Amino acid sequence: MSTRYERGLVRQAELGGAGGARERAYDALGDIAPDLPRLAVEFAYGDIHARPGLDAGRRELVILGVLIGLGGLESQLDAHIGSALGAGVQPREVVEAIIQAAPYAGFPRTLAAMSVARRVFDERGLLPVPPFIKE
């Protein structure tokens, strides 16, 4: 096992990455591209995600924005919403980050992302999500 891979696994574990959507996605590739999950762990988590400069929560919010903008990546959104929560991002902050994507990514992608967030929050017993209170 490479140091990059080990560093990536540690980073994923810090974000609550054991099991769940990410592991299901990786397992589904076992019979066609077994090296791809290893490469993802090494590069995305061992190299990029482990860099200094942003805390894990901010890093996950950036990732959510990119995934929403790309669209059609519900399984990755599922995994990264879970990682954001694991990094200490509050559910209402995830909701607000998704709402912020609307003028840039469009309402269809924003609504699709919010549906994924709702499912993740429901699975974790985090519904209802209280709104931010305007003062």
CATH topology term of the largest domain: AhpD-like
| Total separate domains | 2
Report the top-level CATH class of the largest domain.
Answer: Mainly Alpha
Write the CATH homologous superfamily of the largest domain. AhpD-like
Strand content range: under 5%
Shape: globular
Secondary structure: number of strands: 0
Percent of residues in helical segments? 55-70%
Architecture of the largest domain, according to CATH?
Up-down Bundle
Give the averaged pLDDT, no decimals.
91
What distance separates the N and C termini? 52 Å
Uncertain ranges: none
Task: Write up this protein.
Helix 1 (3-14) packs across helix 3, helix 2 packs across helix 5 (74-86) and helix 4 crosses helix 6. The longest helix is centred in the last third of the chain and has 17 residues, at 107-123. This protein folds into two domains: 1-51, no CATH class; 55-135, AhpD-like (Up-down Bundle). The chain contains eight helices and no strands. The termini are far apart. The model has no long low-confidence stretch (mean pLDDT 91). With 135 residues, it is mostly helical. The protein has helices at 3-14, 20-27, 35-49, 56-70, 74-86, 91-100, 102-105, 107-123.
